């Protein structure tokens, strides 16, 4: 650690750490919000019995394939000063990036959670009802039962968000302050800057950092899952 | 910024070998939080909401010029600049939507249209350099040393060698299409590849496929170490045709049209770029040992030309050649003889 801070000048570190921080902040917030929005939908669709249920599931699954640049363009039109949300001043801010990644991650998380919820046996639900549970109790019991699948869904959503470049480049503007601190530049958009200037080595280093980040988050996810499993088997 | 990134490259290389995952030092994070604060101790005072959104071309950003220009401005005026680097066309579109406060671009025709539509006010000339036609050093199409850009383009077209076009509505792309329009050749066919990327990207791609492209001298010079392309047709800075001129202008966005823009900071920025201080920073900025941009805002001579849009007079041809004469005057007065 000491060796590194002696060898590495502050400006480079500031640049590097701030883009990592922005990447984590934007994608983390977007995935957290997506998860909050996705679970109720997954539960409602998974347990609901209504006409057009298959169609709704199909629409959610289709959403997994939304092209990120199209989402970016639509969000830009929405938050631009000429757009309906222009008053909020969101354009070229991390909030706009969170919004577009929310749109991208939500179908992924909803769709995979939906499969997890649907795979929970009817007996679990019936048992929860029979024990006098309210709707909320039943939902909690199901979420608990489906937690491995839901963690997988969140990880998939995070993977989609953190590795995405098309939409955040458009709505975030890839901004770095003149002291080298990132405002809306993420690891992925920083790689585009290095690539366009022919500095592939720097781009590769950033790519390695991105991989390390995704690896770390997935490791965290599998740790959570294995811990949950261990407790369940006790 | 390139300086920082270059340092970052060296440092990050070390970091990569030492393992990237767990190297978040506590002192580095402290550094990060303290450097984000902006102070306005050195006169000027805070302007507007303290943030200025600049939409500009990739050439001003990728050459690192803005990294030299912006810190003194931010310090003096307490304004944080957010730079969007996209082509001239995209920058103008961003400003038309009221999403930028000021633009620094290089396509006089599009700038005039922007002003005529009322989106911009108080345009000023800032600096210039020129475009050059670059290609592989063995020059399979044989255009080296031509003194006509249109002839060089037509020769490339006839030879069937690959020409890489920005294809992104940038200032360079507009200039390139303008040259094709004046040449006898049609830019169409497999040899003509539109990549839709910034100047740096386009040079890198052209380099890899061994093709030809039109580049602004600034970006080319700043990237010379990364690529093997050589200048085959010079611009007017070194005796080439005037059609390859490349003047940059700064335009604040009209606050009457877009009431959310930070007009005061935009005017301060335009004032700063065209001030003796801003102009001398531009004059002193070098990359790989070469000056990239030549300031032209300061002049004791009458300089009405910058307020008159291209094609404003009935005798358009005449007014265009005036503009060319003006550009050659800048070259005479600003570019050293031994450049």
Topology:
The complex is a heterodimer of chains A (234) and B (339).
Chain A: H1 2-7, H2 10-47, H3 53-63, H4 68-79, H5 94-119, H6 122-130, H7 135-145, H8 147-162, H9 166-172, H10 187-196, H11 200-233
Helix pairs in contact in A: 2-5, 2-8, 3-5, 4-5, 4-9, 5-8, 5-9, 6-7, 8-11, 10-11
Chain B: H1 2-18, H2 26-35, E1 51-56, H3 58-62, H4 65-77, E2 80-85, H5 88-96, E3 102-105, H6 108-116, E4 124-135, H7 149-159, E5 163-165, H8 171-182, E6 192-194, H9 199-209, E7 212-216, H10 217-223, E8 230-233, E9 245-252, H11 263-273, H12 276-284, E10 286-287, E11 290-291, E12 294-295, H13 316-334
Parallel strand pairs in B: 1-2, 1-3, 5-6, 5-7
Antiparallel strand pairs in B: 3-9, 4-7, 4-8, 4-9, 4-12, 10-11
Q: Would you mind describing this structure in some detail?
A:
- The complex is a heterodimer of chains A (234) and B (339).
- Helix content of chain A is 77%, strand content 0%.
- Chain A is mainly alpha-helical and 234 residues long.
- Chain A has one domain (14-233): MetI-like (MetI-like fold), CATH 1.10.3720.10.
- The radius of gyration of chain A is 21 Å and the shape is globular.
- Chain A starts with a helix and ends with a helix.
- Chain B folds into 2 domains: 41-129 and 247-334, D-Maltodextrin-Binding Protein, domain 2, CATH 3.40.190; 130-244, 3-Layer(aba) Sandwich (D-Maltodextrin-Binding Protein, domain 2), CATH 3.40.190.10.
- In chain B, strands 1, 2, 3, 4, 5, 6, 7, 8, 9 and 12 form a 10-stranded mixed β-sheet that branches. A two-stranded antiparallel ribbon of chain B has the order 10-11.
- In chain B, a hairpin with a 2-residue loop joins strand 10 (286-287) and strand 11.
- The longest helix of chain B has 19 residues, at 316-334.
Please identify, by name, the CATH architecture of the largest domain in chain B.
3-Layer(aba) Sandwich
Mind telling me the CATH superfamily name of chain A?
MetI-like
- Terminal CA distance of chain B: 26 Å
Query: How many structural units, i.e. domains of chain A?
Result: 1
* Named CATH topology of chain A: MetI-like fold
CATH architecture of chain A: Orthogonal Bundle
CATH topology of the largest domain in chain B: D-Maltodextrin-Binding Protein, domain 2
The count of strands of chain A amounts to 0
Helical residues, percent of chain B: 40-55%
Into which percentage range does the β-strand content of chain B fall?
A: 15-25%
What is the approximate shape of chain B?
globular
User: How does the major sheet of chain B shape up?
Assistant: 10 strands, mixed
Kindly state the percentage of residues in helix of chain A. Answer: over 70%
Number of DSSP-assigned strands of chain B = 12
Question: Main β-sheet of chain A, in a few words?
Answer: none
The proportion of residues in beta strands of chain A is under 5%
Number of helices of chain A: 11
CATH level-1 class of chain A: Mainly Alpha
How many domains of chain B? The number is 2
Q: Which CATH class of the largest domain in chain B?
A: Alpha Beta
